[in-house]
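Consider the tokenized backbone below.
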């Protein structure tokens, strides 16, 4: 059934080129395993997320915990219902960290990749609403293995938050960025949670780097999978933090001067 869904998606959306590209990437790193080294590096640089956020702004951290709990409670019923129907959209990102950054930095422009069910999207748009301004560009590629996957993208995000501040494109990062990276705006916050392969992460950063603001921040999920995040911060001489979230590692790099760089 998964193969049928993949073929159907490719025909219906004229997306065979994307499918082939993903297969090529999948096999390109088949014999490269950096997970052990990347995990050891992340452990070496680990910082307590709670201590870090509390030290920056304890009042905001309390707000963050409340809002994150609300996001989780509103979303869990939807996710449980989907899983009963054998639809798994994966887990959410570091919602606490993302929401806190949104409220503390009060960014004008935000970019995220890898929307899936929309936990991170929910956190960002909730913060945008509280801030009273801000725009989110979201890049995603539907799960080919699921029938009619487009309808599940950002499914946990309340419709009232999906307004003019939210722009979602679903042709994959390579194509979506052609539309996002235009004009004169700069991104204050970028959350990367799409293709986890090393080559994809580094290619993404190289492409997006000129579009960070002077106080830009990058958050990258699952940095224990390979050495991409380590090499990005080393090669670009960036200050960074590493946190643990749901037994995985999340990296945060500072592209410029930031209120969060403590």
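A designed sequence for it:
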């Amino acid at each position: 059934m998964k193969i049928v869904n993949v073929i159907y998606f490719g025909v219906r959306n004229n997306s065979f080129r994307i499918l082939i590209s993903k297969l090529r990437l999948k096999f390109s790193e088949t014999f490269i395993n950096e997970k052990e080294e990347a995990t050891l590096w992340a452990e070496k640089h680990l910082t307590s997320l709670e201590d870090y956020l509390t030290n920056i702004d304890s009042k905001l951290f309390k707000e963050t915990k409340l809002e994150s709990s609300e996001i989780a409670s509103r979303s869990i019923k939807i996710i449980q219902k989907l899983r009963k129907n054998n639809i798994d959209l994966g887990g959410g990102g570091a919602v606490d960290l993302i929401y806190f950054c949104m409220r503390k930095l009060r960014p004008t422009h935000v970019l995220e990749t890898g929307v899936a069910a929309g936990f991170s999207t929910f956190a960002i748009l909730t913060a945008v609403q509280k801030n009273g301004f801000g725009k989110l560009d979201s890049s995603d590629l539907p799960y080919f293995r699921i029938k009619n996957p487009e309808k599940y993208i950002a499914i946990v995000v309340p419709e009232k938050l999906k307004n003019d501040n939210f722009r979602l494109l679903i042709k994959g990062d390579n194509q979506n960025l052609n539309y996002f990276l235009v004009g004169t705006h700069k991104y204050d916050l970028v959350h990367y949670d799409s293709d986890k392969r090393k080559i994809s992460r580094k290619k993404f950063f190289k492409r997006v780097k000129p579009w960070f603001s002077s106080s830009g921040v990058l958050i990258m999920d699952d940095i224990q999978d390979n050495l991409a995040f380590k090499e990005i911060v080393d090669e670009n001489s960036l200050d960074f933090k590493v946190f643990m979230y749901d037994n995985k590692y999340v990296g945060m790099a500072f592209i410029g001067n930031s209120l969060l760089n403590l």
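The chain is about 45% helix and 15% strand.
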